[in-house]
Amino acid sequence: MAWNAAQAGWWRGGQFDLMLVGLRGSGNLQTRSGDLQLPSNLWAPNFLRVYQATYRQDFGPTFLQVGVQDMNNTFDVTDVAGHLHNASFGISPTLTGNANIATYPNPGLGAFGGVDLGGGASVQAGLWQADPPGMQGALRRGALAIAEYDQTWGSDAQGPSTTLKFGAWHQHNSPDGSSADGSGIYGIGQWAWKGADQRQWGSFVQFGYSPAAPNVIRSYVGGGVRVEGLLPARPSDVLTVGVARAAPVGMLAETVVEAVYSLRLARHLYLQPDLQHVRNPGGIPGRQWVAGLRLHLEQ
Q1: How far apart are CA 276 and CA 292, in angstroms?
Q2: For the whole model, what pTM was predicted?
Q3: Spatial distance between the Cα atoms of 120 and 70, rounded to a whole number of angstroms
Q4: Domain of life, per the record (predicted)?
Q5: How many domains does the chain have?
Q6: What is the pLDDT of residues 121-145, one digit of tens each?
Q7: What string of DSSP letters covers 23-71?
Q8: Is 285 exposed, middle or buried (0-12, 13-18, 19+ CB in 10 A)?
């Protein structure tokens, strides 16, 4: 649900958002797969909760948003990788593997703001509670600070575009917190263009680095390619291929190769078969295959 103050005839630039999210499943995918990079970005223990309850106020080129929210809705987001199922393509495992942050399936209380610098440049920064599953004591349980700089060239939808993002974060936990303090950096590069065959193409690279001693995952690198309309008879279908490599401390690096095809069955209805090959799952020598299937409905 969303309520826009200007459209309601009250004041400009204000908006309230409310989101309820629930999940019901069976089994434990994380335990069953043993992967550092979870094969499904939707898997979680069963839950039903208010996932977002925020107020945003725009002040010309600047904005401020406060409330219960998912940090990954706005920070460390790779749009080109949106169809891929593996969680590493959604947010760097150097963040999720080393800090208990406010992201799926546990949003947290936070505030962030940003400013449009012009020329395709923007900057945003925020502060979230640490250990969000507790939802008690808020910042007394610790806090995560994060900042990101974005630069886009050629944002015209009909022409080529390039986007670069660079971010840094630090999480401080209270003495009775669930983990040690941590910090790190991350970066994203995205490119989109239309080929001579009129197909829409996109590519991306990601990296994360978190060198602090207590961290489990020191480095991450990923990348991939997306093409829309690979088959001339099916211009709305999308094929995305990605590779992700996470390096845990004292163990072998885990590498995931994933391919997902988004098949448009009807207007607003998509079927997404997915196949992943994991080398050294959980940092242990070996290989495994993971297959998935999603039915996606959107308005």
Answers
A1: 8
A2: 0.93
A3: 24
A4: Bacteria
A5: 1
A6: 999 999 999 878 765 666 677 899 9
A7: E---S-HHHHH--SS-S-TT--SSEEEEEEEEEEEEETTEEEEEEEE-G
A8: exposed
Query: 136-172: buried (b, 16+ CB within 10 Å) or exposed (e) per residue?
Result: eebeebbbbebbbbbeeeeeeeeeebebbbebebebb
Of 216, 207, 147, the C-alpha closest to 179 is: 216
How far is the CA of 63 from the CAs of 105, 125, 164, 207, 240, in angstroms?
26, 11, 21, 27, 33
Cβ-proximal residues to 102 (8 Å cutoff; 6+ apart), any chain: 69, 70, 71, 108, 109, 110, 128, 129, 132, 144
Domain range spanning residue 210? 2-297
- Which tokens go with 233? 């008879």
Sign of dihedral through CA atoms 135, 66, 101, 179?
Answer: negative
Q: What's the CATH code of the domain at 6?
A: 2.40.160.180
